[in-house]
From TrEMBL:
<dbReference type="InterPro" id="IPR017871">
    <property type="entry name" value="ABC_transporter-like_CS"/>
</dbReference>
<dbReference type="GO" id="GO:0016887">
    <property type="term" value="F:ATP hydrolysis activity"/>
</dbReference>
<dbReference type="GO" id="GO:0005524">
    <property type="term" value="F:ATP binding"/>
</dbReference>
<keyword id="KW-0547">Nucleotide-binding</keyword>
<dbReference type="InterPro" id="IPR003439">
    <property type="entry name" value="ABC_transporter-like_ATP-bd"/>
</dbReference>
<dbReference type="InterPro" id="IPR015854">
    <property type="entry name" value="ABC_transpr_LolD-like"/>
</dbReference>
<feature type="domain" description="ABC transporter">
    <location>
        <begin position="3"/>
        <end position="215"/>
    </location>
</feature>
<dbReference type="InterPro" id="IPR027417">
    <property type="entry name" value="P-loop_NTPase"/>
</dbReference>
<protein>
    <submittedName>
        <fullName>Putative ABC transport system ATP-binding protein</fullName>
    </submittedName>
</protein>
<keyword id="KW-0067">ATP-binding</keyword>
<dbReference type="GO" id="GO:0022857">
    <property type="term" value="F:transmembrane transporter activity"/>
</dbReference>
<dbReference type="InterPro" id="IPR003593">
    <property type="entry name" value="AAA+_ATPase"/>
</dbReference>
<dbReference type="Pfam" id="PF00005">
    <property type="entry name" value="ABC_tran"/>
</dbReference>
<dbReference type="GO" id="GO:0005886">
    <property type="term" value="C:plasma membrane"/>
</dbReference>
Length: 216
């Protein structure tokens, strides 16, 4: 599974934020995208995940167009999982159920194996003891780690993470990047991490930089 962005443009009013960005995200790679605040990296990630329609250019998920006639193709979008800067957790669900929610909404009964996999992921982000808590009962860093675990639980072939280590110390930030790298390599997934944190870039297969809406 690959994600390909061609000639992506986006603007707000008369201000163009992205200026014809081309980006290939091949299966089996973790790509780190660095850039300062306002560089366009979050906008690019939102377009790659089907959250923001570009004003120009195309996005393909495994050769299928993500945007068709200005609307998101739900099948293509279903192959992506997104970790937002602000917590993407559902407030009225427990941490455990935030991992299981895609199974629940799809009408699929969760199995013991599903729950064990969820528990293992929570253990990997040091949250197993807080599985029954609600997002409001977690710290900012704990919510961030839970959101990463929820995205990985989906086993999506394309993972898009916006500043997943921003609220984490060096040790936990590296552990999260290791999990994302492992998902890319073991699941043959395409993983894009937008960040300004350079502490664990050695785990990325490629490091790209964006500034003023252009890849350097």
């Amino acid at each position: 599974m690959t994600a390909t962005l061609n000639d992506i443009r986006h603007g707000y009013g008369d201000v163009e934020v992205l200026h014809g960005v081309d980006l290939d995200l091949p299966a089996g790679e973790l790509v780190a995208l660095l850039g300062p605040s306002g560089s366009g990296k979050t906008t690019l990630l939102a377009i790659a995940g089907g959250l923001l329609t570009p004003t120009g250019g195309t996005v393909h998920i495994n050769e299928a167009p993500l945007y068709v006639d200005g609307k998101v193709d739900r099948k293509a979008a279903g192959d992506t999982a997104y970790v937002l800067q602000a917590s993407s957790l559902i407030g009225f669900l427990t941490v455990r159920d935030n991992l299981l929610v895609r199974d629940i909404t799809a009408g699929r009964r969760t199995t013991d194996a599903d729950r064990e996999r969820a528990a293992d992921l929570l253990d990997a982000v040091d949250l197993r003891s807080k599985a029954d808590r609600y997002p409001s009962q977690l710290s900012g860093g704990e919510r961030q780690r839970a959101a990463v675990a929820a995205a990985l639980y989906t086993q999506a072939p394309v993972i898009l993470a916006d500043e997943p280590t921003a609220a984490l110390d060096r040790h936990r930030g590296r552990a999260v990047m290791e999990l994302l790298a492992r998902h890319a390599h073991e699941r043959n997934a395409a993983v894009l991490v937008c960040t300004h944190d350079e502490r664990a870039l050695d785990l990325a297969d490629r490091v790209l930089r964006i500034e003023d809406g252009r890849l350097g």
